[in-house]
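G., the chain you wanted modeled:
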Amino acid sequence: MFESSSEQKGPEQAIGERLFTEIEEYIRSVSLPEGELSEESPEQFGNNFYHLFMDQELQEEDYDSLFITNKLREMERLYGDEWKKFLEENAGLVNEIQVLIRELRADNKAFEAFMTLYKNPKTTHLAERIHDGGRLHNIRVQIWDRLNPLLETASKIMRSYGIEPEEFYS
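Predicted structure as tokens:
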């Protein structure tokens, strides 16, 4: 799902329509709460603090080390034992964060596919159809609305382990 257009064969319109269909299927697979659609950009607690947990997730999936950012490596270097203890003793919280990180990764892939449509003049009209509904944006807002409080909690708990979480906010 959401393969990059450079890996695909066929006319641009057919590729665009396939990406459009995949994005629509993704949007339908996510339940959004009833009510008004958000116009606001989602806030991110601690800016890129979430990368620490995304990298942990990638490491557990045995991704090539090139995909792991310096945040996780720096955490392990500065707070190796404290970080391990935090992860072990807060496994439930870390798991909740990683569930939402997986949702965020899926959303990022959908957004990348959307941008592929948007940047191509032959498929911009498909991107506009997705954008007009606002649902893709609202999925991202919903994920961050659930993820931010968990990240804030993790940040507070880290302090009790002697970890300075602010070092990983940028």
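Helices lie at 12-29, 50-60, 70-89, 91-119, 124-133, 135-160.

Shout if anything looks off.
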